[in-house]
């Protein structure tokens, strides 16, 4: 997967329950072998190869705890539990990311359809897709794979 050029990036890091700070962080670039040593086979398949976990199987689908969902590959802060909602689709869904600085979007034309893929800006991990059928006010549904995420309780951020 191609992404932003290597070098420092600006991302938002959550400091407490209500706000975040913009920080400069390095781009994370690793070989497939390094990613395979770090990730489980399912995490590698989804996050590094653009796969999708089966619906209703992800460990964060029914998670109701207060906290933050970070990238399983690099720890980039991605989604807050405050924006999580039950979409009925079988995957964890959010109305918005922590910040648009922390993700990037690409056009995905795999499987004979056009969708908007969501990736981690820091390491280019595949996270899932965003759709325009979410709840008001922005009508966005960020449909994410649990395998691409790691949950951190709010007090542990």
Strand content: 25-35%
> In the CATH hierarchy, what is the class?
Mainly Beta
C-alpha termini separation: 28 Å
Write down how many β-strands occur, each being a DSSP E stretch of 2 or more residues. 11
Q: Averaging pLDDT over every residue, what do you get? A: 91
User: Within the CATH hierarchy, at the fold level, what is the topology?
Assistant: Metal Binding Protein, Guanine Nucleotide Exchange Factor, Chain A
Fraction of residues in H or I helices: under 10%
Q: What is the helix/strand order? A: EEHHEEEEEEEEE
Low-confidence stretches: none
Computed CA radius of gyration, to the nearest angstrom: 15 Å
Domain count: 1
Structural class, from helix and strand content?
A: mainly beta
Write the CATH homologous superfamily. Answer: Peptide methionine sulfoxide reductase
**Number of helical runs?**
2
Largest sheet: 6 strands, antiparallel
Basic shape: globular
Q: How are the strands ordered across the major sheet?
A: 5-6-10-9-8-7
CATH architecture group name:
Beta Complex
Q: How would you sum up this structure, described in words?
A:
The relative contact order is 0.24. It is globular, with a radius of gyration of 15 Å. The longest helix has 8 residues, at 41-48. It is 10% helix and 34% strand. It starts with 7 loop residues before the first strand and ends with a strand. It has a single domain (8-156), classed as Peptide methionine sulfoxide reductase (Metal Binding Protein, Guanine Nucleotide Exchange Factor, Chain A). The chain is mainly beta and 157 residues long.
């Amino acid at each position: 997967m191609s992404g932003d050029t290597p070098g420092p990036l600006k991302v938002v890091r959550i400091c407490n329950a209500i706000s975040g700070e913009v920080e400069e962080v390095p781009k994370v670039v690793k070989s497939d072998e390094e990613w395979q040593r770090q990730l489980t086979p399912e995490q590698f398949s989804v996050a590094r190869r653009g796969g999708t976990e089966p619906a209703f199987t992800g460990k964060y689908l029914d998670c109701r705890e207060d906290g933050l969902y970070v990238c399983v590959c690099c720890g980039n802060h991605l989604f807050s539990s405050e924006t999580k909602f039950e979409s009925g689709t079988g995957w964890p869904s959010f109305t918005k990311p922590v910040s648009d600085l922390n993700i990037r979007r690409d056009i995905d034309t795999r499987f004979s359809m056009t969708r908007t893929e969501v990736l981690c800006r820091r390491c280019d991990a595949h996270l899932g897709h965003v759709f325009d059928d979410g709840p008001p006010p922005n009508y966005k549904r960020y449909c994410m794979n649990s395998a691409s995420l790691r949950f951190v309780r709010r007090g542990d951020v």
